[in-house]
Specification:
By secondary structure, the protein is α/β, with parallel strands linked by helices. 28% of the residues lie in helices and 32% in strands. It contains eight helices and 15 strands. The strands form three sheets. It has a six-stranded mixed β-sheet with strand order 2-3-1-4-11-5, sandwiched between helices. Strands 8-7-9-6-10 form a five-stranded mixed β-sheet. A hairpin with a 5-residue loop joins strand 13 and strand 14 (246-254).
Length: 283
């Protein structure tokens, strides 16, 4: 049985359950349960407080965990990341009151900084050779400048709406973060074999999420150029159409370059382009 830790509640919890489900792993998740098992995969799930997960990993209480990369940087840089999961993206940033001028990180010299990430901030300040006074706060860091506790804050930023509501502006990004799958240094050989199977499934889901299936029609005299644009996983599938001189091509496009590729296909004679989502990609 492979033991995985997942955040007890919140967006990271929901996205973690979703990716496991897409990987074909079904969990009977009753209300307020702290531990459960999958009914179709050798996986035991522990629902834990986010801040406790790194220690559980380090101690070998759980074999793997889904958590924010920012938490590993803060509490457990020694723990190994085996897969970046592409969801719950955010950044750890410096923010100051909107009316304050800020030209560079050197403006933090001698200032008071409130944060829930003291180790991350200490490393940042040391790297920039800045001396500042740190105030560690658990939750609601953004109110610190408004009550006179700090001149600046360092906190997680997603959309920036919380900063805006508290009359703050983001002025410098310290690190980018997303959900990751981390592994315990004490994982057994047996659990590691199950992890390999889980990773295979998750990677298939992630590849599918970042890809689109494309079907198009093209004149045969333009096929070479269109095949150049659409390499696919190995090469596109080409099938003759009933209309003489035309073929149908089936391939895969990466989400990141999707619109650029579509524009190029159209400019080179592609017609009747259909795009479909991909559920899984087994490579």
């Amino acid at each position: 049985m492979l033991k995985i830790a997942i955040q007890k509640s919140g967006r990271l919890h929901d996205d973690s359950i979703k990716i496991l489900k897409e990987a074909g792993i079904y969990i009977d998740n009753g209300k307020d349960q702290l531990k459960t098992t999958s009914r179709n995969f050798p996986l035991e799930v522990l629902y834990l407080r986010n801040g406790d997960i790194p220690q559980y990993l380090r101690d070998g209480v759980v074999d793997i965990a889904i958590l924010g990369e920012n938490l590993l940087v803060e509490k457990a840089e020694d723990l190994k990341i085996v897969e970046k999961l592409g969801f719950s993206k955010c950044r750890v940033s410096v923010a100051v009151p909107k009316e304050n001028e800020f030209n560079s990180s050197k403006d933090l010299e001698g200032k008071k900084i409130a944060t829930s990430y003291p180790n991350t901030v200490k490393n940042f300040l040391a790297e920039k050779e800045i001396k500042a006074e740190l105030h560690k706060i658990s939750g609601s860091v953004e109110i610190a400048p408004n009550i006179g506790l700090a001149d600046a804050i360092v906190d997680i930023v997603s959309s920036g709406s919380t900063l805006f509501k508290n009359n703050l502006k983001e002025v410098e990004q310290i690190l980018k973060s997303e959900a990751v799958l981390a592994v315990s240094p004490q994982i057994s050989a047996e659990a590691n074999q199950i992890l390999d199977k889980l990773l295979f499934r998750i990677q298939s889901v992630l590849k599918a999420r970042s890809s689109k299936y494309v079907l198009l029609n093209a004149p045969n005299d333009k096929l070479d150029k269109i095949i150049e644009i659409l390499p696919g996983m190995k090469s596109p599938t080409v099938l003759p159409l009933a209309k003489e001189g035309w073929s149908s091509l089936h391939s895969v496009i990466n989400e990141e370059t999707f619109w650029e590729v579509i524009d190029e296909l159209k400019n080179n004679g592609a017609e009747g382009i259909l795009i479909c989502p991909i559920e899984k990609m087994v490579l």
